[in-house]
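Researcher: Next sequence.
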Amino acid sequence: MLSSDAKRLVVGLQPVREAIRIHKDRLNSVLVESRQTPRLEAVVRFAGDQGVVNIQRVSARELDRISGGVQHQGVIAFAPPLALVGLDTLVQDRNLIAVALDEIQDPQNFGAVVRSAVGIAGAAVIWGEHASAPLSPAMFRTSAGAIEQARLCRVRSLRDALRQLGEAGVQVIGLDAHAPIALHNLRLTGPLVLVVGSEHSGINRGIRATCQSFARLLSNGSLDSLNASVAAGIALHTVLVYRDITNS
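Model: Next structure:
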């Protein structure tokens, strides 16, 4: 297992509640705005019930300072570092469903993809460390707490990682609005990775070379109008529906 930075800031009601639910007394601390509202008091009670020892009431100004401009909704937590899954673990997963992100640099898009991956298919998320949005409080908040349950795989080179997965028998499918075949018409059984490119330039040439096939999501070829998280959500749902039908 690899880890992200040890001091991990989580902001916002839902992300903090999920961090409390998952980590319980392993949370370093929970900071709650000193004003009393039903929602904030519910967080205090929930944290106490889950065994969080260090619960502090602080001013809104202090929360603003700590959050660095990310909307905190009156609550912040310091959570344990995220455990990152190594690529070798994914290679060995014969039931793998994963989303690979090629140069998704907007933290909101990144976080929304993580939310879709966890919520729709329990899918892993793979990304290259140099050309993607960082793991950040803004990204954690957009994931609405899903980051706490996600299988995250950060790799040095996405191209090399996809090539390794393909050589290990994992199907690598690039999402392309202009592909001649729709995703649901491919064979979507076995371990697979769905590659999502940036909204501006799509999948870059080096990553395209690692894809074994390309598929569009919409019959009218308008994938260009979908952001990365929507495209990932539709693609993951398509895979699950295909497998349900195939296995019925």
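Model: The chain has two domains: 2-79, 83-247. The CA atoms of residues 30 and 55 lie 5 Å apart.
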